[in-house]
Specification:
heterodimer; A: mainly beta; four-stranded antiparallel β-sheet; 0% helix; globular; B: mainly beta; seven-stranded mixed β-sheet
């Protein structure tokens, strides 16, 4: 089946530090890959996506590159801010399938201290 | 575009009671998904609709759960005879199957259910 594995949290960083959250996946077909962010008390917001190998998704200073050879989609940001504190979810959906349902990782809690 | 809305935001109920949640998707979105998120876990797929047709149900959706989307717009999720294990955040998402990004889903704020 399909699955997503994220690095265990929580991750605690100081403001302006470099962020990496690892994500690897297994899929029965050719997936699209996503990062969603969940701020306290809110629903999930799409942060970025990539739909084919070597594509880079980017948004709000965050980046992730679709690596088919390592089945990975690691999230990075060069300089985090306190406002980036949230839970980050890596997810996939199969392209070419008809349902596009998302399979999520367990999430990684990021706390950024001033 | 007001986004996906869900009501109520919070629901506390006693074991054995029935509860119903509502989701209003982004207008003109023809796909609607329900997910369940328990504490410390990622969301898990429950079911989805295209227009008014329910096209897939997860094995997580026991026979105490029923979902409808009668006119292809809003959807309801009902849980009968609630159990403590039903306590979770129930998330709704919508998408437009036609166009450039059929795989992109937009989520509502969720309904948090607590079963006492």
């Amino acid at each position: 089946g399909n699955s997503v594995t994220q690095m265990e949290g929580p991750v605690t960083l100081s403001e302006e530090a470099f962020l990496t959250i690892n994500c690897t996946y297994t899929a029965t077909g050719y997936p699209s890959l996503f990062w969603y962010v969940q701020y306290p008390g809110e629903g999930l917001q799409l942060l970025l996506k990539a739909t084919k190998a070597d594509d880079k998704g980017s948004n709000k200073g965050f980046e992730a590159t679709y690596r088919k050879e390592t089945t990975s989609f690691h999230l990075e940001k060069g300089s985090v801010q306190v406002s980036d504190s949230a839970v980050y979810f890596c997810a996939l959906s199969l392209r070419g399938g008809s349902n596009y349902k998302l399979t999520f990782g367990k999430g990684t809690l990021l706390t950024v201290n001033p | 575009d007001t986004g996906v809305s869900q009501n109520p935001r919070h629901k506390i109920t006693k074991r054995g009671q029935n509860v119903t949640f509502r989701c209003d998707p982004i207008s003109e979105h023809n796909r609607l998904y329900w997910y369940r998120q328990t504490l410390g876990q990622g969301p898990e797929f429950l079911t989805y609709f295209q227009n008014e047709a329910q096209l897939e149900k997860s094995r997580l959706l026991s026979d105490r759960f029923s979902a409808e989307r009668p006119k292809g717009s809003f959807s309801t999720l009902e849980i009968q005879r609630t159990e403590q294990g039903d306590s979770a955040m129930y998330l709704c998402a919508s998408s437009l199957i036609q166009g450039a990004a059929p795989d992109t889903q937009y989520f509502g704020p969720g309904t948090r259910l607590t079963v006492l």
